[in-house]
Design goal:
This protein is an alpha/beta fold. It is about 40% helix and about 25% strand. It binds nicotinamide-adenine-dinucleotide. This is Aldehyde dehydrogenase family 8 member A1.
């Protein structure tokens, strides 16, 4: 009997999707909506070692057929999947909105369409790719990109649909078969994706999705020597564990990890725009890896900036994510809210100053007030650790040098946001800030062909454009005597 349950009007399967068919597990785990934690949305298959074996066998069997197709032939499937995502946009948005409380409007207008764009982008990029050919030392040299093998893709609970598609698309376009393991706190949109993969009539075993806990089925997947690529997005502690498994099997591994990005504002900036963007870091309740969580402002504009920031932060509405007036969603899980609250409580004990917010919006519920903290020192825990909630810090600087020093003073380096009205400073400081992506006078604008990734504890390797295609390929040089 198939395990399907109604989520916001969509019948979602709680089973795995392996070799083109739904597979159940004897054990299941509950998934609940952060908006209404008392109600169970459904029971999801809790994969184990056996599930991982089945999925890897499936992906291994399908590899010779999929890798034998041309990029153009594979592109047909990827575009068909993109079409289906566009057709089922609202259903996907409804499911993800219930499962992780991301705002429906943001999913429907931005993140689900981006999922379709991810498949289209990689379908076309792989076709456009030209082999490098040149003559040297009397030989014709040709660089050939061959598919690497089955790839395991592990995703986190935030923005699960967009991130899964972003990570699976290059693997498939490059000719690898895929096993996707979504996070156990938001497993459902991946299951809707499985239905669309079936509708798109991918060859069996090309694109498999297994559900379950990271420490169980996730761990079994990344340790299997038949897996030829591991692409991970999540936390630093998990990256360390998966990195060891990848090292054991000598398997290339990318890690997209946490951040503690700066939002650095100079006195010459459009201060209103900068303050508005700073208050916008509370969107998605701060559960965004790239969020500019350390606001660092030139001392001379401190009061003006704070007044504007508070004006915009006051406009946030915490509520049901299906309601278009809501701007701040419930947070993913009670454990995560406790974690965020712990950071704020320790900041108080440490002598940091809570400038606004600092507590749950409604006791017993999963919304946390938009919070701003002026730390006692740059070494305060709230400045140095990723909180991953609606908690920002506020610091000031006097000189450009001090601003850059503060911006670069954590172990992370995922991204950064800079506000300045001076073009030369934009170039100069933009180059000095440590991070994989630095936005100047804007935020979250993405070109899918640009590299994306982190420095330091924010990650290893780059996704995006041909960088991800290369990661998922084995490069070979063919030299023929001329
Ligand atoms: P997490 O590390 O707890 O879990 C991520 C995934 O890893 C989940 O699917 C989990 O089941 C799996 N996992 C856990 N242990 C495993 C193991 N031993 N073997 C295999 N898989 C295992 O992270 P999270 O809490 O889900 O995500 C939040 C983190 O992700 C934050 O640090 C955030 O900044 C980061 N993130 C980074 C990016 C980026 O692009 N850099 C994007 C989104 C989120």
């Amino acid at each position: 009997m198939t395990n399907r349950f109604n989520v916001n009007g969509v019948m979602v399967s709680g089973d795995h999707f392996i070799h083109g068919t739904r597979v159940a597990s004897a054990e299941t785990f509950e998934t609940r909506s952060p908006m209404d934690w008392d109600t169970v949305l459904g029971n999801v298959a809790r994969g184990n070692e056996e599930t991982a074996q089945l999925a890897i066998e499936s992906a291994t069997t399908a590899f010779s057929q999929w890798s034998g197709l041309s990029a153009k032939e594979r592109a047909v499937y990827l575009h068909r999947l993109a079409d289906l995502i566009e057709e089922h946009k609202e259903q996907i948005a409804n499911v993800e909105c219930s499962d992780m409380a991301m705002l429906f409007e943001s999913l429907n207008l931005r993140l689900v369409p981006r999922g379709a764009a991810n498949f289209r982008n990689y379908a076309d990029l792989a076709v456009e790719h030209e082999e490098r050919v040149w003559s040297s030392k009397g030989t014709l040299n040709r660089v050939i990109r061959t598919p690497a093998g089955p790839a395991v893709i592990i995703t986190p609970w935030n923005a699960p649909f967009m991130l899964s598609t972003w990570k699976c698309a290059p693997a498939l376009a490059a000719g690898n078969t895929v096993i996707l393991k979504p996070a156990e706190w938001s497993p459902l949109s991946a299951s809707v994706l499985a239905d669309l993969i079936e509708k798109a009539e991918f060859p069996k075993g090309v694109f498999n999705i297994v559900q379950g806990l990271g420490s169980e089925v996730g761990n079994a997947l990344v340790n299997d020597p038949r897996v030829k690529r591991i692409s991970f997005t999540g936390s630093v502690p998990t990256a360390r564990i998966i990195g060891k498994a990848a090292a054991e099997n000598i398997v290339p591994f990318t890690a997209e990890l946490g951040g503690k990005s700066c939002l650095l504002v100079f006195a010459d900036a459009d201060i209103d725009a900068a303050a508005k963007k700073a208050a916008g870091q509370f969107d998605d309740s701060g559960q965004v890896c790239m969020a500019g969580t350390r606001i660092i402002v030139e001392q001379s504009i401190k009061d003006e900036f704070l007044a504007l920031f508070n004006k915009y932060a006051d406009q946030h509405v915490m509520g049901d994510s299906r309601d278009s007036k809501t701007t701040m969603s419930a947070m993913i899980h009670p454990v995560h809210v406790d974690r965020v609250e712990g950071f704020v409580n320790r900041a108080r004990e440490n002598g940091d100053t809570i400038l606004r917010g600092g507590k749950r919006f409604i006791e017993g519920k999963l919304w946390f007030e938009p919070t701003l903290i002026a730390p006692k020192s740059n070494q305060s825990e709230v400045v140095q650790s990723e909180i991953f909630g609606p908690v920002l810090t506020f610091q000031t600087f006097d000189t450009e040098e001090q601003g850059v020093e503060l911006a670069n003073s954590t172990v992370f380096g995922l991204s950064g946001i800079l506000y300045t009205g001076n073009k030369e400073r934009a170039e100069r400081v933009g180059r000095l800030i440590r991070g994989g992506t630095i936005w100047v006078n804007t935020f979250l604008v993405r070109d899918l062909t640009a590299p994306f990734g982190g420095i330091g504890l924010s990650g290893l390797g780059r996704e995006g454009g041909h960088y991800a295609l290369e990661f998922h390929s084995d490069l070979k040089t063919l030299q023929i005597l001329e």
